Amino acid sequence: MAYLSLKNINKIYPNGFHAVHDFNLEAEKGEFIVFVGPSGCGKSTTLRMIAGLEDISKGEFYINGNLANQWGPREREIAMVFQSYALYPQMTVYDNLAFGLSLQGIDEDVIDERVQKTAKILGLTDYLDRLPRALSGGQRQRVAVGRSIIRKVGIFLMDEPLSNLDAKQRVTMRSEITQIHRETGATTIYVTHDQTEAMTMADRIVVMKAGYVQQIGTPREVYFNPKNVFVAGFIGEPPMNFIHAHVEFGAIRIANQVIQLSELPGRDLSSYEGKDIILGFRPEAIIPGERENGYALSGTVELTEMLGDNANVYLTMGGKQTILKVEPYDIPALDTQFTFTVPYESVYLFDAETENVIEA
Length: 360
Ligand code: ATP
Known about the structure:
Layout: E1 4-12, E2 18-27, E3 32-36, H1 43-51, E4 58-63, E5 66-67, E6 78-81, H2 93-103, H3 108-121, H4 137-149, E7 155-159, H5 167-184, E8 187-192, H6 195-201, E9 204-209, E10 212-217, H7 219-224, H8 229-234, E11 241-248, E12 251-254, E13 257-260, E14 276-281, E15 287-288, E16 294-306, E17 311-317, E18 320-326, E19 337-343, E20 348-351
Parallel strand pairs: 3-8, 3-9, 6-7, 7-8
Antiparallel strand pairs: 1-2, 1-4, 4-5, 9-10, 11-12, 11-14, 12-13, 14-20, 15-19, 16-17, 16-19, 17-18
Helix pairs in contact: 2-3, 2-4, 4-5
This protein binds adenosine-5'-triphosphate.
Adenosine-5'-triphosphate binds at residues 13, 15, 17, 19, 37, 39-45, 193.
């Protein structure tokens, strides 16, 4: 059994709301797992059940092979970082860091050594005498992280720890947390609604929607092999484009275009004859112009966004908005027609009814 094991975990709140359905996860020691999904999908609820802050309604939770459903938060030996740093406002940074250790009755010298070391890792050495109110948001967040890592626990839980920071601080803290994880080796579960954080930090990502796990996989797996339309649309920025299509007479028909199935080698759509499907392609997968080994589409340029190394192009095609990524020197003029090719190997096919990917 893995270090953390969640078996068919469910949460039904006292008001009867079923917030988490049959959540299954095996996390290895030292893994960095990210729960990602839109607001209200059950990420925090699941994290709080792992922390012991919320009862598990149904299912089993094991730590290192031991059934831990009834264990209190202390027994679980976890440290948790919340979105609202939860620092003691009347205590200095030093005391905020030292407090948890003092409670455990640890020797002053040992505490001092650990505070100094933690402060060094987090760049807080010059701020140890300050009160939290005299720190920036990023520095406060560092203290909150420091308070957790100083305890040397085996499990580190973080609930949207970067959401109060500005964009630049978020990027810095992202890499700092990854670095700290590497140094401490603690099994980490990190909750966010930001797919970029999930992609950049995770060993494995758990994508959730409305209380259900949609897919568990490495960043590469969820990006290249999404299991359904939801994961395909949630992972990747800008999101994947989707077009409704119909399979008829051995071909995919999209509006007035036809893709012969023989042109999509390895895709068996025989059972979809006469049915609707959804065709997906990533904004970054397209090639400007009309090319071979792909299907060409065109639309009217509505908006362009120059980002420096690349640019976003927003088109309307048949009344629907499509987003493309192009090189900066390929940016088309507004209100013109823009033609592009989606290479066949970059086409994703989904069942229109179940929204699950059509396996190759
Ligand atoms: P967010 O990113 O907004 O924090 P989340 O994915 O973490 O969202 P949860 O906080 O886990 O979502 O909430 C999941 C669902 O459970 C939501 O619909 C929420 O309204 C509901 N919920 C949370 N706490 C309770 C409660 N105490 N009683 C009833 N329903 C609750």
